[in-house]
Amino acid sequence: MSCSITLKNVSYSNGSNLLFENINLSVGHEEKVAIIGSNGVGKSSLLRIIAGLEESYSGELYLFHNLIKNKKDYRNFRFEVGYLPQDISSFFLSATVIEDVMFSLRTTGTKKEEAYQKALEMLEELEISHLKDRIIYELSGGEQKIVALAGILITKPKILLLDEPTNALDESSEKRIINILNSIKKSMIIISHHKSFIEQLTPTIYKLENKKLEKN
Ligand SMILES: Nc1ncnc2c1ncn2[C@@H]1O[C@H](COP(=O)(O)OP(=O)(O)OP(=O)(O)O)[C@@H](O)[C@H]1O
Ligand SMILES: [Mg+2]
Predict the structure, then answer these.
(1) Which residue has its alpha carbon closest to ligand 1 atom 24?
(2) Which of 70, 106, 123, 136 is most exposed, with minimal Cβ within 10 Å?
(3) CATH of domain 1-80+160-216
C-alpha cells in the first residue's frame, strides 16, 4: 500500500508520564482515519508528533515513505501537511478573515491578486463569505474554527491533520464540514469525540487507550 503517514513503534512521554508506547499506524494514500479516546490520553500529543511539532519521541515517523528524523527533514514536507490544532487561539497571523486566508496562500509563493481571488472562492465554498472583512478575534469560537480550516484547505495539502475540527460547531456547520471533508481526496487523521461526526467520514476508527492505539 502507498502510505502517506507511517508510525513505527512510536512512544512518547510528557515529563515523567508515559502517554503511549510502541504505537504503529499507517494511513494510506487518500485514506481517512479517525482517532478517539478519553480526555488526556495523548491524542493531541500524537497528532503534534505527526505534525512535526514534537521531537522528543522515540520510534519512527515516515511521510510518503521518507523517514523524518528532525525538523529539518520535516521542512521538505511543510506544504504537504495541513494541521488544525485543537486550540486555535494562536493560529491566526492576520487581523481580518480575508487577509488571514490569503496569507496562507502567500506563504506558498502565490501572487497577491491570485491569492485574493482564491481566498474569496474558499470563503464561498465554506459558506463564510459574510465574514470576509471581520476581525478574527471578534468572531465566535465556531466561526474562528471554520476560518482556520479555510486557511488550511486553501493551500491544498496532501495530508490533513485535524484535531477536534468540529468541537465548537453547530449542527449545520458540522454538516458543512462533513460534506467538504468527504468531497476532498486527501489522507486525513481526524481526532474527535463526536461519534456521529466520525462515522459519517470514515469506517476506520482507532482508539487510544491504555497507552496503545487499537482499531476500534
Ligand atoms: N504542555 C504540556 N505540559 C505538560 N503536560 C501536558 C502538556 N500538554 C499536555 N499535557 C498532558 O499530556 C497528557 C495528554 O494530553 P493531550 O492533550 O495529548 O490529550 P488528549 O487525548 O488530546 O486530550 P483531550 O481529549 O482533552 O484533548 C495530559 O495528561 C495533559 O495534561
Ligand atoms: Mg486533545
Answers:
(1) 39
(2) 70
(3) 3.40.50.300
How far does residue 23's CA lie from ligand 1's centre (Å)? Answer: 17
Residue type, 185: K
Scanning the structure block, which residue is given the C-alpha cell 479516546? 37
pLDDT band at 101, cuts 50/70/90?
very high
For range 82-108, the mean pLDDT: 94
pLDDT band at 107 (very low <50, low <70, confident <90, very high): confident
Residue with CA nearest ligand 1 atom 31: 40
- Cell numbers for 192: 474527535
Mean pLDDT of the chain: 95
Which atom in ligand 1 lies closest to the alpha carbon of residue 42?
18
Take atom 4 of ligand 1 and give the residue whose Cα is closest: 14
User: What does the block give as the cell for 74?
Assistant: 520535516
Strand-pair category, 205-209 with 212-215: antiparallel
Q: Which ligand is nearest to the CA of 40?
A: 1
